[in-house]
Amino acid sequence: MPYGMILEGVVAVLLVVTVGYCFVLDRRLQALRAGREELQKVVQDLNATIGRAQTTILDLKSNAGDTARILDERIAKAQGLADELSLMVQSGNSIAERLADRPSARTASARDSGAGPTEETRTGKEAGLLNALRQVR
């Protein structure tokens, strides 16, 4: 047998194997291209989603800033009202103490007679005020 024929047969077999391998490689490259296109679509969708998320975050920051400003204003107003109320309570307590310590005409005559002021010697308004003060304290 001529060696040329054997050699040509081996080359032919190798060519068939090469063609088969190229066919398999072509299929894999097609799958890779299809996967690349799908991956590109996924990346585009992801970019669009990130853009919407950034817009939403900016809106949330803006809303949070507005809310913080409104809350600061309300806290300042509430603090002012609390200070004013505290001043009113102190004034009311001071006035109530002066009224409680102030002798009226009836209590002065009772004091002169040696007896201390009683509920009967106080006017109705003074007695009501003293009862209210006792309940508060």
Would you kindly provide a written description of the structure presented here, covering whatever features stand out?
This protein is an all-alpha fold and 137 residues long. The protein has 2 domains: 3-92; 103-137, no CATH class. The protein is 88% helix and 0% strand. The model has no long low-confidence stretch (mean pLDDT 84).
Our count of domains comes out at 2
SS strand fraction: under 5%
Secondary structural class? mainly alpha
Question: In terms of quaternary structure, what is this?
Answer: single chain
The SSE string, one letter per element, is: HHH
Radius of gyration (Å):
49 Å
End-to-end distance? 128 Å
Largest sheet: none
Number of strands: 0
Number of helices: 3
Question: What is the helix fraction of residues, given as a range?
Answer: over 70%
**What are the low-pLDDT stretches, counting only 5+ consecutive residues below 50?**
none
Mean pLDDT: 84
Shape: rod-shaped
